Amino acid sequence: MTSALEDQLRELAPRVLGALVRRYGHFDTAEDAVQEALLAAAQQWPTDGVPESPRGWLITVASRRLTDLLRREQSRQRREERVARWALQGEPVADTDDTLVLLFMCCHPALSSASQIALTLRAVGGLTTTEIARAFLVPEATMTRRITRAKTAVREDGSRFTLPADREERLGAVLHVVYLIFNEGYTTTTGPSLQRVELAAEAIRLARLLHRLLPDDPEVSGLLALLLLTDARRPVRTGPHGELVPMAEQDRARWIPELIKEGVDLITATLPHGPIGPYQLQAAIAAVHDESPSAEETDWPQIVALYEVLLQLTDNPMIALNHVVAVAMSRGPAEGLALLDSLENDDRIAKDHRVPAVRAHLLEMSGDRAAARTAYEQAASRTTSLPQQRYLHTRASRL
Description:
Blueprint: H1 3-24, H2 27-48, H3 54-71, H4 76-85, H5 99-106, H6 113-123, H7 129-136, H8 140-157, H9 167-186, E1 190-191, H10 197-213, H11 218-231, H12 257-270, H13 278-291, H14 300-313, H15 317-331, H16 333-343, H17 354-366, H18 369-382, E2 384-385, H19 386-398
Parallel strand pairs: 1-2
Helix pairs in contact: 1-2, 1-3, 2-3, 6-8, 6-9, 7-8, 9-10, 9-11, 10-11, 11-12, 11-13, 12-13, 13-14, 14-15, 15-16, 15-17, 16-17, 17-18, 18-19
């Protein structure tokens, strides 16, 4: 299967799943049917050609498979009677995108926050259960059970497949899910590649959908701006052999100026209005980086000030770790190392590879090469991302 076809199927998958759930219900069974339809497309389209209506083809195949799956479940006669009432024959397939509705459905209030995120990453983001389990740092079997329970809860709730009346209450979970999808695409948790561009692109597409739905919500605007400003650096985050290139060493002339302008314009228009939230502040930090002509000319005191406001709004250890780096760049590595000591006792982040990676960087800045090398090697042993492992081992070997 070509990469173009793979990208097309990835884009169509949540739209097809959304259409099936909207028409027939049965979220969990519909997902199985869609996966089989995607497999059939991957096998047939390269030989037979892509149909005139790819989404309609997938919905038709998935609908037939859904009928077969439902007939095998309990209460066969009752289910078959329901299936018989569905007007499958000759029913036109509306060319609508149900992805956003599916996104809100996955963030159902009956689900825990972790289950909302896991289900959306599976159904909308297209991540495998293995990838989601690694992102949550839990065994794959545990994540499989969590996703299965989430599907069951959504099915048993019996909610109609429409934008919910309580969408404002679900919005925080929805934004967090989109943010995590982007992060998994921007820096993958495992595997040979640093980035999965299709996931980052899907997150930006979802953020744009949210922004069109809620154009006056400052945090929706902030999230979209953050993703655009971050994705602008994508072309130079890796070298010719796939190796990680840190921001300080990137060729800023190759950052994507259209994304920077769109992101800066968006956050500039958003910040003066309404309450300031975490995504707006992170977007403002990203804007400072993107507008700096070089790493040396970065306004680190302004970034420190923005992080300190951000830390008043969120108890996020990764934000605190980024604040450590900003303080070190602004006030020297000694102050950064002093702040880092307190973070190493935080169970939420203590085992993450980024803690020793930051320590190594600050030790290198301070001139303690031996300790820095040890910390780089420790960080490399903790990450499952091969590009990050290679980068950290390279930093260690240079010392």
